[in-house]
From TrEMBL, chain A:
Taxonomic lineage of the native organism: Eukaryota, Metazoa, Chordata, Craniata, Vertebrata
Domain of life, per lineage: Eukaryota
GO cellular component, one term: transcription preinitiation complex
SUPFAM superfamilies from the UniProt entry: Cyclin-like, Zinc beta-ribbon
Localization (cell): Nucleus
Native organism: Pygocentrus nattereri (Red-bellied piranha)
Record's keyword terms, sorted: Activator, Metal-binding, Nucleus, Repeat, Transcription, Transcription regulation, Zinc, Zinc-finger
Keyword presence, Zinc: yes
Name of the protein in question: Transcription factor IIIB 50 kDa subunit
Automatic annotation (TrEMBL), chain B:
Family: Belongs to the TBP family.
Example of a GO cellular component annotation carried by this entry: nucleus
InterPro entries reported in the protein's UniProt record: TBP, TBP-like, TBP_dom_sf
SUPFAM superfamilies in the record: TATA-box binding protein-like
Taxonomic superkingdom: Eukaryota
Primary subcellular site in the record, as a coarse category: cytoplasm
Listed name of the protein: TATA box-binding protein-like 1
PANTHER family: TATA-BOX BINDING PROTEIN (PTHR10126)
Keyword annotations of the record: Cytoplasm, DNA-binding, Nucleus, Transcription, Transcription regulation
GO biological process: DNA-templated transcription initiation; embryo development ending in birth or egg hatching; transcription by RNA polymerase II
CDD domains the UniProt entry points to: TLF (cd04517)
A single MF term (Gene Ontology): DNA binding
Localization of this protein: Cytoplasm; Nucleus
């Protein structure tokens, strides 16, 4: 506190505050001797802390602007997907909870946008009306990897138990994205949605049974099934129609169309090959060739008699693969009930494999052993797979329908033989010398570097 | 790795593809010197480490100036130890006062092939909270075994990849998961 006035020299200095600013004024001459700092700073605050800009002193807290925007986005998504009002409310409340959770409050805006989509996704799944992540990704125009990441973080943060959705559940809502009702397109191309859904559902089930669905993105498969189903409902007129034309005719909305058409083409060809394998077993074709490009006209019959054709195809395949064991399997199968699982590799397979490893005897012994075992098992209403007589044949060759990546499996690498290493061996100097440059080499290396640098300059 | 024999006489080949280990040299390392005098080294000044590759046990090591080193690429725990020791000798020869200490195997990655396909949806349904399967994110179902601290990724083709803190845990994890997979190899019809 100042004691004397610099102007007149009197010691009569009093404290006289101007509003909230401290001031010391000389009583005799009236001059301002000194004043306190007006604004709140570190020196004035008792706790010596400045108030940061993001902590507001508002009395009534307004909701965060991004939260409001996010809620609007969630509602818009629900409206586009035509969800019911309680599903919309569920998604909105989930988004509020997630937004204020410490995992998500400080993330970037892009993630918050994706968070809205993930909340809609989870709500749909919980109410048994699932949508694909591909749909969300195209509606939000976001990277599907980011959506996957945010989805998994969300499930962990809010401890939601994820429901496994099967592809058939997604089919019905998916089909509504195709505008093919009789009023909208010409008669040749029109198809009532109900028939389309029925036919596609049967194709999706067939694809699931023949390992085309497991582990893959559902959207391309759904698109392929709908396309093949649509073609098969009026094959003569529609067989010439390509996939792109089909997308144009049905005025496919962005969220229903798969990102990459080549994946869809691959699925279409896989599906057609499966249909061909079954179509070949149709007795009234009497050995006619069945081509993938024309199989559309046979789809109706194939789907009607799916189960029988599948059994026939599998038995046929087994018989072709195992000609010397065909007597055994043929006689035993005659006694069997129709419901069997011929493609079941299990215990006898594994034990006989072990037997092969143990004994060094020839082919004959193995055939006897395996045929003996399969005869035993046949009596138990289960036709076991006949094991190949000898050799390291890949187990996949015994199955007609396989996950496609098994067929194209690479041969296991035969690396350098495993060294028997203990970890405590002696390390000789010469080995280590190989990893160190000699002084001469170091000099040469530096010289080359210098030269390269000079050349650059 | 040798086939794992189980009580019901099944021989499965578990192939260890990667062993990650760490150790310390207890001394500061000058990365520029290592970059200059080492033969198979890549110096990354932007990250602050040196990558050194050994030939004999095929190993890549990340060397930090604090003296902490991470070795990856070995195919067994013993190989990892040998490689780490070789690396420490190398650094000693270059001229640093290296003391090989705190060697620890941190992660083991192995693959195994089942001779049957696996229905992933059924597998996930049977093992609901522990297994998770999102085909749109990753084609495999992932299964975490908490007490072994191991994660198994199951593919529909029957291949599985197992990661765990050491080789024994990995073998136990395969034994643990085998019966669960066996009951999910439901076939057609």
């Amino acid at each position: 506190m100042p004691s004397s006035c610099p102007e007149c020299g009197s010691s009569n200095v009093v404290e006289d505050d101007l509003y909230s600013q401290k001031q010391w004024v000389c009583e005799d001459c009236g001059s301002l001797v000194s004043e306190g700092v007006f604004t709140t700073t570190l020196s004035d605050e008792q706790q010596s802390r400045t108030i940061p800009y993001y902590i507001s002193t508002e009395v009534t807290k307004r909701p965060c602007a991004n939260l409001v925007k996010g809620l609007g986005r969630v509602r818009a998504l629900c409206r586009i997907l035509r969800l019911s009002s309680d599903m919309e409310m569920g998604a909105v409340s989930l988004f509020e909870r997630a937004y204020n959770h410490p995992t998500f409050i400080h993330v970037r805006l892009l993630k918050k946008e994706v968070l809205g989509g993930c909340c809609v996704l989870i709500t749909c799944r919980q109410k048994n009306c699932p949508i694909t992540m591909g749909t969300i990704s195209s509606l939000l125009d976001a990277d599907s990897a980011l959506i996957g990441m945010v989805y998994q973080d969300l499930i962990k943060a809010l401890s939601i138990e994820p429901t496994t959705t099967s592809i058939s559940d997604m089919l019905e809502s998916y089909c509504y994205g195709y505008k093919l009702s009789p009023g909208e397109v010409s008669e040749v191309f029109a198809e009532p949605t109900r028939r389309l859904v029925e036919r596609s559902a049967a194709l999706v089930e067939l694809a699931a049974d023949t390992w085309l669905v497991t582990g893959r993105h559902p959207l391309p498969i759904l698109m392929a099934c709908v396309y093949v189903a649509w073609q098969s409902l009026k094959p003569m007129d529609r067989m010439k129609c390509t996939l792109n034309k089909f997308c144009q005719i049905s005025r496919l909305s962005k969220e229903v169309c798969a990102e990459r058409k080549d994946t869809v083409q691959k699925r279409i060809s896989e599906l057609r090959h499966v249909l061909c394998k079954l179509g070949r077993e149709l007795p009234w074709l009497r050995g006619d060739t069945v081509e993938p490009s024309t199989v559309a006209r046979l789809v109706d019959d194939i789907l009607k008699h799916r189960q029988t054709l599948m059994l026939k195809a599998l038995r046929h395949y087994e018989q072709e693969a195992e000609p010397d064991l065909s007597d055994c399997t043929a006689t035993d199968e005659a006694d069997q009930l129709p419901i069997t699982d011929p493609a079941a590799p299990s215990q006898p397979l594994l034990t006989s494999k072990l037997d092969q490893k143990d004994q060094l005897s020839g082919k004959d012994m193995d055939i006897l052993k395996t045929s003996g075992q399969s005869e035993l098992k046949c009596g138990d209403k289960a036709v076991e797979e006949s094991v190949p007589p000898a050799g390291q044949e890949h187990w996949g060759k015994r199955h007609l329908f396989l996950p496609p990546s098994v067929r194209t499996e690479k041969r296991p690498r035969v690396d350098a033989p495993e060294l028997t290493v203990t970890g405590y061996e002696e390390i000789s100097d010469s080995e280590i010398e190989a990893y160190i440059r000699s002084p001469e080499e170091v000099r040469r290396y530096l010289a080359v570097k210098r030269k390269l640098k000079d050349d650059e300059d | 790795m040798e086939p794992v024999e189980q009580s019901n006489d099944v021989a499965l080949d578990i192939i260890i593809t990667n062993v990650v280990s760490v150790f310390r040299t207890r001394c500061h390392l000058n990365l520029r010197t290592i970059g200059l005098e080492g033969n198979n080294v890549i110096y990354k000044p932007e990250v602050g480490k040196v990558l050194m590759k050994l030939r004999k046990p095929r190993i890549t090591a990340s060397i930090w100036s604090s003296g902490k080193i991470i070795c990856t690429g070995a195919t067994s725990e013993d190989e990892a130890k040998l490689g780490a020791r070789r690396l420490a000798r190398c650094l000693q020869k270059i001229g640093f006062k290296v003391r090989f200490s705190d060697f620890k195997v941190v992660n083991v990655l192995a693959v195994c092939s089942m001779p049957f396909q696996i229905r992933l949806i059924e597998f996930t349904k049977n093992n609901r909270p522990i297994a998770s399967y999102e085909p749109e994110i990753h084609p495999a179902a992932s299964y975490r075994i908490k007490n072994l601290r191991a994660t198994v990724q199951v593919f529909s083709t029957g291949n599985i990849t197992v990661t765990g803190p050491n080789v024994q845990n990995v073998a136990l994890a395969v034994e643990y998961i085998y019966p669960l997979l066996l009951e999910c190899q439901k076939t057609l019809v």
